[in-house]
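so the lab meeting is tmrw and i was supposed to have these ready like two days ago... anyway. pasting both below. for each one the top line is the aa sequence and the line under it is the structure tokens. i havent really looked at them closely yet so no promises
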Amino acid sequence: METKKLVQTAMFTALVLLATFVFKIQTPVIGYIHLGDAFVLLAGIILGPVSGGLAAGLGSALSDFVGGYMIWCPGTFVIKFLTAFTAAKIYQGINRFYSNNRYHLSQTVIAGIAGETLMVLGYFLYNILIVMFGNGNFSADGFSEAVVVSVAEIPFNVIQGTAGIAIASVLLPIFNKIANRLGVRITV
């Protein structure tokens, strides 16, 4: 990995960590909602699928670790990596349909919806595992209970994802303007 890309990845890892850890609101069920998803999406779109995915996964998992949610770290790393990876791939695919290099809001929104849908589904499934392991109940009744608890988290993840898409949609053109002034093209 070249030095510039490594520095950008580290910077986005820190941005994801800070936005996730500092701006969080505890949910009444299990987890918390935060503003980190905006930077998860931006990491994927700006850095590309792999580097962006690594920054998103590592920054989010570090936030869980520092915040005392250690059991969530492995799932968070995978889920946020896939969120950024998916958003980057969709953004790149849509970008091929545009003949100019200008920013199009639809790219960010569609890429964000794809990535955040994966995030909601990923946390739903991981939450089921966490609840079943936490209760030590791997029966059909334990699974049913875990599904009910996990469904209750979905609205909070949807709110978090929607906020992430909106914030990323506002910040991406700003990041592009700053990069253009520096003579750098940041979007993939």
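ok protien two:
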Amino acid sequence: MQQLKKIMEEQRRFFKDGNTLSIKWRITALKELKNSIKSHEQEVIRALYMDLGKSEQESYMCEIGMVYSEIDYMIRHIRSLAREKRVKTPLTQAPGKSFVKMSPKGTVLIMSPWNYPFMLSMEPLVDAIAAGNTAVIKPSAYAPFTSKIIETVVQEALDSSLAKVVTGKREENQRLLEEKFDHIFFTGSQSVGKEVLKKAAENLTPVTLELGGKSPCIVDCSANIHKAARRIVFGKFLNCGQTCVAPDYILCDKSIIENFVRELIKEIKRQFGKNPLENPNYGHIINQKHLNRLLSMLEKEKAFYGGNYVRAKLKIEPTVIYPAAWESDCMKDEIFGPILPVIGFDNLDEVIEKIGERPKPLALYIFSKNRKNIEKLKSRIIFGGGCINDTVIHLATPYMGFGGVGESGMGAYHGKMGFETFSHKKSIVCKSSLFDFPMRYQPYTGFDLKLIRRFF
């Protein structure tokens, strides 16, 4: 507890002294962070394999490469992002000029999950540093090897007065949430997100919540079912299904559903082989607790394809539940694993109504060639973000924000939106001393209300 208070005092003092205000200094810090990651890249890859069984290719594509991309974006755009923006000044405030100044919030807390432990710790850190904040990073205890290398990378690149990694379990999480931060950035489950929000409310601390939910994938009768199956299998079984934006379930037009399911199974075999449990590039479930949760779900459902597992290796093969129903056990909560229910539908209005009855999803995926159907679905369903004719890739860009809505989260980050998340926009009017409009001062007896109305 004393160590945590010391960290907080050190970071607050460093921030108050104005050390993070220099854009040149921020760029240097980001470059140092990138160099440190590069020097430990193989150790990061090894840690991700130890924690989640991720292959080298997947580790780079879905974690390390995305962090590099975010750092490069910030280094290229930080000057324009931080620049004061002139805005119009109304006649009532003339003569003068108005502008918005981007200012760092202060000392921020970043709490990251275990499913993409490196990327979801480092990307918010990059945005926080770029915006001029100091940061405390709390990685997940469920990914101990990655947490350790994150600590090494940050400690080597950045002074503790700028960024500090705090490891530990639930007790450390509680202690951190008792401190008064200037912003809390949390990625994880909805249940823990609620607790974070409660704690933050006690100090009126602004919060970004990146949560999850049951993200639907809709396939209509006009879709290219071969491409749809291929891209859905990629998005669903990436990281063994442990992805917050993974397609949680499929809604498929009944007129094509039999052909689509056949294509789905073909793609699973194509991408993971006939025995995925022996595929070295197919990851594993994070721990026994989550494996048991998924196996309990499988016991209540009848697998149309897959369903085999090896408990000792924490592995469950890609599994298709078909036909599934809205009332199925696997439709009650987010699956967060390699189990994919497929439900048929007769018309899109039914789909819109059913999705609308449930908590707002983090992502929505639409597979269709019909423009009217696409417009109808993307307009009438409330969701965080998504793709048309693909899955998950909408979060892999620094040029759009990523975030949820309603139960799936609040706030967004990546690129410009990440910079803005960790910044406060100061609205400022710089008024000339040349003259005043006398009508604004007491006494008002000399001015007719009609004149004031016309002026405004």
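from a quick look at the 2nd one: The mean pLDDT is 95. The CA atoms of residues 9 and 25 lie 21 Å apart. will dig more after coffe
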